[in-house]
């Protein structure tokens, strides 16, 4: 029963989102094949390479443990630029405000956008504000677009994975998604799960300076989580990836909450995490470099690119079993019993 | 979670697997063990347990996913209710994506119908209190684990005098269909991994008639990988010894008497009745229907609505899959026409469904 209308699953970042992009949106607006879809477009002008990206933020609740929709909107776009290896410079901000939004909430959100921009070293240079009648939006939606420059001349892209590459993550996964879910559903998880929202451009800059062309792929595993992002990379690069479950960093509180709700942390959203695929000889240096940085303290090598090229992702489980990892299908829903 | 880590220890798992391989090394036949709990189905796939077993042991999935065994006309009924402007459907998340004959609750929600995902029947009660002008219909699906909480919510609603809280009932009980499947000569079930949480309610004795009549080994097993490896080992031992019995591997949770309080609440509100299982048909006495004195809470009786004639996809093998007779890959629709994004049958929809597990984790 293929859906003839937009359903929530189309926004999950998983397979349905991909289908919507590939079948409906991309053919009409761009024609870019999946292999070349990355977090930011790379443009060349006057001999200089620029990165350009845009993203919209519709998170509910707008304030959550560890952040709010404002710093999320800045960090998210900064990270999209950083994942292409660019140095973020300028942002634009589009605000869609619902009638009835308290001005004090707007001020709080704008203040955190200002702080996040300052922390990320980017300047907000353009903007737009619209107000819609009550019920036509959910409190506040924010769109940000960003421009960055490249300080190097090599490519970092989703199709860049090579056989033998090691897969690194800069810390525990699933914190953002669980913090937002707990806030939205009013779940009392008796724990302090905070969003990991953070700008990652500095960490990326250090990786580029430290291992240079040994850095092949960078992606931030936001919606759809680590599983969906790695599956995208496997398909884009036409390689197989194998993850080691025992190496995956997951905070205990997140693991516990996921166990209770029947969710898999591999599919839970992150906002301050990156996945880096690096040449095997550069892996230990990359790991040490990450672990020295404030946003990479919990970094780990979680898997590698194997020598098959079928676009599949596998997980070696803690008990030694092997299973497949697919993209998120629809939304992650709490189980029934 | 450190407690849970003890049940996922790789070194202990390797020893258990070695022990199991050694135990059945000289066994020339095939042991077919069925799990009848959706959470087991998922855990088996999620931890890659099949890839660790000796070739003499085959795991098949039975009708253990409450969403999967709910017939299509129930979904149609829920969809019809959702279309009524005065109704809000409150449901566990899995149900909203299950396709009915021509729609699903998710689609109705996208078109503006009142459909809310809740985490417990008590959340549905809270909705009823918050929206006195609406009729809140909770979708009562699930087995003995879920049914007592629904019964409890009904008792609370009665105490609070709530007149806008209803349940569209489809609760089911597990041991009777297990006996039906054990008697199926095509299946040749050698043993059951009995459900963990259901057994915590009904207690090990609930399987005694099944063992006595069908001579089939039963081991109540937990959900962690070491639990399941141990449960499989206990079943294999029973088969080799030729002495079927009920054993409890999951003794840290399941008490010999079960949970009498939960059963009392359940029996106060519900009475056994005949009920249809998707793919299996009507199994006498395996459903839970409202007792007459709680008829005021029965959405089917209290909210009249026209329900479309049910239509199932002719190629869908959910029924055979739920009976453990075929594997998902044997279904011509699997991975081609039927996918999690565009599911044909409930086995692909539910997070506990056999096809969903195979699609998501299968190698």
From TrEMBL, chain A:
Residues 38-149 form the PurM-like N-terminal domain. Residues 163-314 form the PurM-like C-terminal domain. GO terms for biological process: protein maturation. InterPro entries: HypE (IPR011854), PurM-like_C_dom (IPR010918), PurM-like_C_sf (IPR036676), PurM-like_N (IPR016188), PurM-like_N_sf (IPR036921). It holds the Pfam family AIRS. Belongs to the HypE family. NCBIfam families: hypE. This is Hydrogenase.
Automatic annotation (TrEMBL), chain B:
GO terms for biological process: protein maturation. InterPro entries: Hyd_form_HypD, HypD_1, HypD_2_sf. Signal peptide: none annotated. GO terms for molecular function: 4 iron, 4 sulfur cluster binding; carbon monoxide binding; iron ion binding. Keywords: Iron, Metal-binding. It holds the Pfam family HypD. Belongs to the HypD family. This is Hydrogenase assembly protein HupF.
